[in-house]
Every structure is written in structure tokens, then in C-alpha cells.
Task: inverse folding
């Protein structure tokens, strides 16, 4: 299982939301990324969190700066609305791109992105919320509903040939409530078909052991940004559990 | 002449590789036409992209130029897609590829049931592999428990006994991870994304004298 640190960016400042709302500014994302790399993080995910909502793009210069001196995988996304947007992030040093809103607006370019970069370089993001007994998926910083449920959204990513999928529980975002278990029945078939990353609420290292069998990775932001969890400790524990060393 | 040539084909992503080489102060140059191969002794075929981006005509020219380069003693290192491309046929593009190595690339779904293998995995490196002088040098100062970053939806399969192969293990399945035949080598994993161990491997590669 991989441990991935997620850095949400707005106007080149690291931000963190709670339940995709109430965004707080934390500082220079480069400094956080540098420290996370030194601490031994597996991967970095850089997201222009409000990109689709406000039609803004991630600054390529910032991405290049973060990339420098870090021989680890970096994915980037947020506000990718076209093939050109995706290629700009790759040109700025990203290894993979993270998409969400574009699959509901511009399928043609999604296919072009996958055909050019290959499935392995495209991560599909899903924001979901439980409403009544259904898992509703959202986009534009969880402001808009896609009209699809979680199962159908993952099926759509599968059909588009996307390599891996990041599933985020909006109601757990920034709340240290632990990762979601409630979706397991709904998406169990996808655990077998493609790598699934889960985010929203990671706080307890014990969850690595519980979820190692079916998750490909855990994506963490608040617990690392606010020093609730130490990355070196999490990686060391992961190594014991997953790698037997 | 001591520079490592990075062959940028199609729209392949070379940034992480360059980032790694620069952090090691390794002398490199990017080239976009195989007519320039004569300027180098060692070249790397980087590995991010989709096989479909190279058309048949270009594939044929690249193949012929690389075969001459290799025959003249040039060292070729293919990374991930760069490795897959060196075999004869790709299921991804459903077309012939470079044909520098006998074998083909197949979807990982057939091996792992999943569409993608993505993780940090250990190589099943055995003592017998280290009898190969090149492997010994390439993996010098790298622990046997070192993990490398794999990110691929296709894998290479060969039945050529002249190709030396090192595997990795994903759950209970062996997945081909490294190939060498004479002066043609390739890794399914990305050394440029494998932290310190990957950097050591790239440093060792740069120091190999041919």
C-alpha cells in the first residue's frame, strides 16, 4: 500500500478545507512538499482544489519547483478541462494527472488524454457523499452533483480506460473521522479490477493493516499538514505491515 | 561523447528522468531523432506514454537506427514503455514494435486481474543474476531488499533463453521486472521515481564504461 500526501493549492498557497468547505491557508506548498519528501513519503499529489469551481489552472512554475530534486511520483490536477491543460501539467513535471469534472463535460478530451499518456498516467478522482441510502458523486469542490452514483462513476472511469481511481468521502474531509468503510460493498468489484486510492479522514495508523488487502493507497492531507501524524512513523509502520521490514 | 542521450519519442514524459539525472549531476542530452544516435555511446528510452503515439513508419526507422547503434556497441536502456517498445509486438497498439528483443507486451489484466500494477516492489534478485557483469555493476551498492516503483498496464513476455530476466512478485504472481541481452537492457520499474535506490541505479548506469 502506498502513502500519498495531498497538497491542495489555491493562488500558489497550500490550503486545507473541512468537508470541502471553510478553506484555511497554511503557507508555502513547496516547503511542505520538501519536508514530506525528506520524511519519506511515497508520492505527492498536487491539486488546484478550486480549479473547476473558479476556472483556474495550477501554476506550472510552482509544480516545476516542487518537482525539483524529488525522485518520487507526483500527480497533479484540479481544473483540468481540456487535453492541453493535462499536457501542461505533464510538461511542468507531473508524472500523472488527476481528473474529475472533465469526465462530465468533455469526454472526447479524456479519451485523447488516456490515449496520449497511457492509462497508468491518469488518475480519476471521485468526491462522494452519502444521501439517503445512495452514494452521490460530486464535482466542482463538491458543489455540484454529477447525476451518477459511486458505482456508475467508477464504471465510467473504467470504461474510459483510466488507470487508478481516488475516492474521497466529502463528509470526512479534514475531520479525522477515519477512512470510510461504508462504500466497500458498493465498490468491491472495483477493488479487484483497478487500484483504488481512498482519502478523507485518515488519522489512525491501524487502518493501514485493516485496508491493506484491498486498497492500493491512502491519500492524506490534514493529518500531515497539522502534524497529527508523523510521515516517518506512518511509512515505517506501513513497511512493517505491507513489506515485512 | 560521454553524455547519455535521452531519446524523446512521441509525447513521452522525460521530466522526472531529467530531474533525477540533474540531481546526480549526470551529463545528458535530449534528442528527438534517431539520426543523432551517433553522438552517444549510451541512450535511454524513457517510459511514460502510450505505444499508440508512434506511427508504423517512424517505428520502422527508429528500429533500424537502434539496431545499428546496438550492433556498433551502443548501450540502450529502456524504462517501462521504453522497455516494452524494444520487444517485437505490443498488445497496447496491436502493432509491431522495435524488435530489438524477442517477445511481446501483454496486458497485466491477464496476469494480475487488475488493469494496472502500481506499487513499490522488491526484485527477486538472485546470486546467479550477479554473475552477469552488467547486472553486478548496475545493482552495485543497492540492497537486495530495495524497492522500485512500478507503474504499468502492460508487461513483457519472452521465451528467448538468451535474454536474462529478473522478476518481481505481486501478491503470488511473478511479474517480469528487468531484462538484459548483451548491450540492450530494460527495467519495467522507474528508477527515476524510486527514491534513493533508483538514483543509485541511474548513477551506476552512468558510470558503466563501454
Result:
Amino acid at each position: 500500500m502506498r502513502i500519498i500526501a495531498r497538497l491542495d493549492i489555491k493562488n500558489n498557497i497550500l490550503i486545507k478545507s473541512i468537508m470541502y468547505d471553510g478553506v484555511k491557508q497554511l503557507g508555502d506548498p513547496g516547503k511542505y512538499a520538501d519536508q514530506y519528501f525528506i520524511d519519506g513519503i511515497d508520492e505527492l499529489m498536487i491539486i488546484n482544489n478550486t480549479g473547476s469551481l473558479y476556472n483556474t489552472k495550477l501554476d506550472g512554475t510552482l509544480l516545476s519547483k516542487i518537482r525539483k530534486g524529488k525522485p518520487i511520483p507526483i500527480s497533479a490536477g484540479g481544473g483540468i478541462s481540456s487535453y492541453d491543460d493535462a499536457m501542461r501539467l505533464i510538461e511542468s513535471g507531473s508524472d500523472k494527472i488527476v481528473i474529475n469534472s472533465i469526465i462530465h463535460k468533455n469526454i472526447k478530451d479524456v479519451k485523447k488524454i488516456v490515449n496520449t499518456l497511457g492509462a497508468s498516467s491518469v488518475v480519476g478522482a471521485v468526491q462522494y457523499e452519502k444521501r439517503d441510502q445512495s452514494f452521490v458523486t460530486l464535482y466542482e469542490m463538491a458543489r455540484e452533483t454529477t447525476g451518477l452514483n459511486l458505482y456508475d462513476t467508477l464504471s465510467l472511469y473504467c470504461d474510459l480506460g483510466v488507470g487508478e481511481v481516488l475516492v474521497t468521502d466529502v463528509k470526512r474531509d479534514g475531520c479525522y473521522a477515519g477512512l470510510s468503510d461504508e462504500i466497500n460493498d458498493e465498490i468491491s468489484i472495483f477493488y479487484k479490477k483497478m487500484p483504488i486510492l481512498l482519502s478523507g479522514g485518515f488519522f489512525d495508523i491501524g487502518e493501514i493493516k485493516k485496508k491493506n488487502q484491498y486498497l492500493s493507497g491512502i491519500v492524506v492531507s490534514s493529518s500531515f499538514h497539522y502534524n497529527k501524524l508523523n510521515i516517518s512513523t506512518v511509512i515505517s509502520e506501513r513497511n512493517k505491515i505491507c513489506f515485512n521490514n | 561523447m560521454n553524455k547519455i542521450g535521452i531519446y524523446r519519442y512521441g509525447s513521452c514524459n522525460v521530466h522526472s528522468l531529467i530531474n533525477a539525472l540533474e540531481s546526480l549531476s549526470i551529463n545528458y542530452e535530449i534528442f528527438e531523432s534517431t539520426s543523432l544516435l551517433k553522438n552517444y555511446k549510451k541512450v535511454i528510452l524513457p517510459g511514460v506514454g502510450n505505444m499508440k503515439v508512434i506511427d508504423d513508419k517512424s517505428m520502422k526507422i527508429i528500429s533500424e537506427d537502434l539496431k545499428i547503434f546496438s550492433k556498433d556497441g551502443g548501450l540502450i536502456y529502456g524504462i517501462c514503455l521504453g522497455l516494452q517498445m524494444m520487444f517485437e509486438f505490443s498488445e497496447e497498439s496491436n502493432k509491431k514494435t522495435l524488435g530489438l528483443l524477442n517477445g511481446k507486451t501483454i496486458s497485466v489484466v491477464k496476469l494480475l486481474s487488475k488493469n494496472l500494477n502500481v506499487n513499490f516492489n522488491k526484485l527477486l534478485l538472485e546470486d546467479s543474476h550477479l554473475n552477469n557483469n552488467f547486472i553486478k555493476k548496475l545493482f552495485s551498492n543497492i540492497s537486495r531488499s530495495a524497492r522500485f516503483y512500478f507503474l504499468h498496464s502492460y508487461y513483457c513476455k519472452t521465451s528467448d533463453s538468451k535474454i536474462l530476466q529478473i522478476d518481481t512478485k505481486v501478491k503470488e504472481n511473478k511479474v517480469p521486472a528487468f531484462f538484459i541481452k548483451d548491450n540492450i537492457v530494460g527495467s519495467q520499474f522507474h528508477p527515476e521515481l524510486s527514491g534513493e535506490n533508483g538514483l543509485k541505479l541511474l548513477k551506476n548506469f552512468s558510470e558503466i564504461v563501454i
User: Anything to note?
Assistant: The mean pLDDT of chain B is 93. Chain B is about 25% helix and 30% strand.
